Amino acid sequence: MFAYVARRVLGLIPVLFGVSLLVFTIPRVIGGDPARVMVGERGSQATYERLREELGLNKPLFFNLKGFDDRGLEGLFDSQYFDFALGAIKGDLGQSLFTLTGVRQGLVARFPATFELTIVAMILAIGLGIPTGILAALRRGTAVDTAVMFIALAGVSFPVFWLAIIMIYLFTVNLGWLPSLGRLDPTMIFHSRTGFYVLDALLQGNWPVLKDALRHLVLPGIALGTIPLAIIVRMTRSSMLEVLGQDYIRTARAKGVQWGSVVNKHALRNAMLPVITVVGLSFGQLLSGAILTETVFAWPGIGRYIYDAIGQRDYPIIQGGVLFVATMFVLVNLFVDLSYAVIDPRIQYA
Amino acid sequence: MKRLTLIAAAVLALSGLAAAQTLVYGESGLPVNLDLPQDGNSLSVQYQVAEPLVLYKPGTTEIRPGLATSWEANDSATVWTFHLRQGVTFQDGTPFNAEAVKFNFDRWNHRDNPYAFPGTKDMAAWTYIFGAFYGESGYLLEKVDAVDDSTVRFTLTQPTGFFPTLLSSSYFGMQSPAAIKKAGAAYGTPSVGLVGTGPFKFQEWVEGDHVTLVRNDNYWGDKAGVERIVFKGIESAPTRLAQLEAGTLDIAVNLSPDDYKVVTGNQNLKQASSGPELSIGYVGFHQANKPFDDVRVRQAVAYAVDQQAIVDAFYGPLGSVATEFIPPGLMGRSDVKAYPYDPEKAKQLLAEAGYPNGFDTKFWYMPVSRPYYPAPKDVAEAFVGYLADVGINAQLNTEDWSIYLSDYDQGKFPMYMLGWNADYPDPNNFINTFFNASESVNGFGWSDANGQKVVSLLSQAAQASDQSTRELDYELASTIIHDQIPALPMVYPRSLNATRTNIDGFLPNAMGTTVSLATVTKK
Q1: How far apart are CA B155 and CA A113, in angstroms?
Q2: Which residues are B503's β-sheet partners?
Q3: Nearest to B249 by CA among B227, B266, B269
Q4: Predicted local confidence at residue A43, as pLDDT
Q5: Which one of B191, B207, B372, B408 would you mutate to disrupt binding with A, by most A Cβ within 10 Å of its Cβ?
Q6: Do B299 and B381 form a contact (C-beta atoms < 8 A)?
Q7: Per-residue pLDDT tens for B356-403?
Q8: How far is residue B221's CA from residue B58's CA, in Å, rounded to a whole number?
Q9: Which of B185, B189, B242 faces A172 most closely, judged by CB atoms?
Q10: Cα A75 from Cα A66, distance rounded (Å)
């Protein structure tokens, strides 16, 4: 088990190396540059040139051959890529070209927001998705099944921002039931130590803040949860149907096991493997930040951080952000793989 | 546990109290950096904390004394002396005096000043207004001298009659030298904030979430009407409006013109607007692309497009047809009339130019919305629709904004959309921004005798010390531009800003919403 985990963690190295190459290259290939954005509509060519120099954008991309001639090996790596990659190895992701704030600090400030939202969305998606999927499978071909499948289809099909705006108008503007701007009422004064508002409020026993933070999670949580919800419902249903058609289910029934017990003990557990895969993938995806949801609800998360950076070509944020997200994704997947062994004893890692 | 409950009760009491006096201000994003900013979202925060030497009368662009109580120039308007308000201190206790003013300007003007933090920071905005940094081609500010504690003298490289107006620009808020020295390059970032003399003090900036300012109770002028301002960044204009309607925001700026009826029809909201604004949207022609080097073709485009219909459709009451590159409210306008909508005349001009059946070309529209073009694609579609009527087949194109900004300047776009919002209320900031020596050529490929003439008129106007000479120069330049039409002025837009009805004293001026919020009160 330990050897397996160690191997997988080592496997991160080539993955992250590949990611670092891609995330470094792609923003530069698509053109545009941060110096141009910085000088704005009317910057002079001179200002632009100076900025490029100052931002280090005039350095060679990968290997500094001139530096090699002048300074030897150390000069060779005086390039944009190695500045980023060598820094990243030391845990230094550089700083934003625009805000001059550290990228690591920026990620640390935003990750809790994304994490809280992801948890709520996933609780919703799993809590609703699995029972509904089972129900649809057991009532296969009935009106219940059709209705569930229709709603699931709608869930994946509705654009998230559209759903979000409808919810804001319905629940915030017209009914006034739930807030939809950020993580906390702007007039509320709260200093969070860890950035996890729910956790901090709970630890401090600050009930008004806890209540307000939870209320702020509802609408974005629903908006974000719809897509994994729909996928989980469909996956649970089809996986259950497949298992229910297996010989051992018939055998169990033939032996006189109660139907409820067959479903719970024999079918469900076996049907869960593919569902867990989907849950893991969705979880990893949501943790990478949800650009649309975060934008509409002004949610200070990772998705919007990276998205804004892409628009401005803020290379250090794009690079550091994507690297961080990729690491998260790989780790979540590892966790999912390990959980297989818990659920299905036939699977063993050595 | 008892202690926790006490704290909770205290927080509850505090937040209840704060709610009454906290102003929540929604703009399209959080600040980028509060030191050396150039974007509206940063400036509207910075302006509350750091005041320029010269201020505007509330709701107008008429300048009035601020930290400088009076000023005078020598006869040639090359040396300006400013007298400073005495007894003012920065929010960290550092005295505000001539040395502090000199410190601020030296750090902006000199690229090699250690407190300019070269290599990490750049005040691009400096070049918008002062032409260039010290020693570079076209720089304006020669030196700043602290004559005595409360007198500061600016020496310029050329006569500038409107120098005090330049200093009123929101970029030039006075900040504490001690605070800048202490924080280093981190000054202006979320962990440090900024220190000025203004009616509000920086309190906190939670990255990605909000910025909070609190009232400066030692302010030299009238104390602010609210205790605290929270700035929230909400990218989409419809969502900003929704949050204003819900009462989460007290003020929402730069709403979509489409929502004019929603704002005026909602009894909980009121519009906050100054009337005409110093802003323009235009369509540029780049003469490196044939046949736009022919003035008849450019005029044909102007006749072919029904500008009034476009403005009515996409701006409604929030825009008027632009006639020249100096917007209303500034001096030096030639009062030329817009080209009327006359497709027959357009066809005739095209025929004279040798294109009786029109031609194929490309029209580039902006990929982002700006106050001067809130819906660029819609306007572009209408525009090329009119061109098609006279036989000009213009293909619509766009590209990433950061690339767009470098391409328009290199002659890649035969026709393109762009615009401008004022940095300071003077014609120089408009007409000279578009038609100075380098932009005439780079932006429009306009280098013939007429183009040269405009360039020289504009530089003459900038240096003239008396207003009437300047006015005549601008009028003449404006007339030539109208006839030669290197670019077609399209619209003078107004922004849509709104507050809840319990908010008073929010007074945007013709420059937009970067105004002092000290006058705002909340009932």
Answers
A1: 51
A2: B522
A3: B269
A4: 65
A5: B207
A6: no
A7: 999 999 999 998 888 889 889 999 999 999 999 999 999 999 987 777
A8: 13
A9: B242
A10: 8
pLDDT at site B12:
43
pLDDT band at B20 (very low <50, low <70, confident <90, very high): low
B11-25, B71-85, B462-476: segment of lowest average pLDDT: B11-25
How far apart CA B402 and CA B410 sit, in angstroms, is 14
Whether the CA torsion B234, B237, B242, B243 is positive or negative: it is positive
pLDDT for A175 equals 92
CA angle B357, B362, B367 (to 5 degrees): 150
- Give the pLDDT band (50/70/90) at residue A42: low
Strand B415-421, strand B359-364: pairing: parallel
Q: Which one of B12, B19, B127 has the shortest CB-CB distance to A47? A: B127
Q: Give the span between the Cα atoms of B523 and B521, in whole angstroms.
A: 7
Query: DSSP string spanning A297-341?
Result: TT---HHHHHHHHHHHT-HHHHHHHHHHHHHHHHHHHHHHHHHHH
Of B142 and A50, more confident: B142
- From chain A, the residues in CB contact with B9 under 8 A are none
User: CA quadruple A245, A251, A254, A260: dihedral positive or negative?
Assistant: negative
Does residue B292 register a pLDDT over 90?
Answer: yes
If we measure between CA atoms, which residue out of B522, B521, B523 comes closest to residue B223? B521
Closest C-alpha to B490, from B402, B378, B408, B331: B378
- Provide the 3-class DSSP secondary structure of residue B44: helix
Q: Which residues pair with A296 in a beta bridge?
A: none
Q: Is the pLDDT of residue B7 over 60?
A: no
Which of B2, B38, B122, B434 has the highest number of chain A CBs within 10 A, making it the mutation to test binding with A? Answer: B122
Backbone angles phi, psi at B102, to 5 degrees: -60, -45
Q: What is the pLDDT of residue B14?
A: 45
Give the count of beta carbons closer than 10 Å to the beta carbon of residue B131: 18
* Residue B137 C-alpha, separation from nearest chain A C-alpha, in angstroms: 9
Of B121, B232, B438, the CB nearest to A44: B438
User: pLDDT band at residue B6, thresholds of 50, 70 and 90?
Assistant: very low
pLDDT digits (tens, 9 = 90+) for A254-280: 888 888 888 887 888 888 888 888 888
Taking phi over 0 as left and psi of -120 to 50 as alpha, with beta for the rest, B77 belongs to left
Residue A44 has what pLDDT? 67
SS (H, E, C) B478-520: HHHHHHHCCEEEEEEECCEEEEECCEECCCCECCECCCCCCCC
The predicted complex's ipTM stands at 0.85
- In this predicted structure, what is the pLDDT of residue B13? 43
**Tokens representing B292?**
């736009």
**Is A231 in contact with A156 (CB distance < 8 Å)?**
yes
Helix (H, G, I), strand (E, B) or coil at A56: coil
Q: Are B129 and B511 in contact (CB under 8 A)?
A: no
| Separation between Cα atoms, residue A111 and residue A142, nearest integer Å | 43
CB of A114 within 8 Å of any CB in chain B?
no
Q: What is the mean pLDDT of residues A142-158?
A: 85
- Distance, in Å, from the CA atom of A216 to the CA atom of A185, rounded to the nearest integer, reads 8
Question: pLDDT per residue over B324-351, tens digit each?
Answer: 999 998 889 998 999 999 999 999 999 9
Whether residue B189 and residue A109 make contact (CB cut-off 8 A), yes or no, is no
Chain A residues close to B5, C-beta within 8 Å: 205
Q: Cβ A189–B18 below 8 Å, yes or no?
A: yes
Q: Give the number of other CB atoms < 10 A from CB of residue A162.
A: 12
Residue B321 phi/psi, 5° resolution? -65, 130
* Entry pTM: 0.86
For residue A109, give how far its alpha carbon lies from the nearest alpha carbon of chain B (Å).
Answer: 7
- B416-425 pLDDT, tens digit per residue, is 999 998 888 8
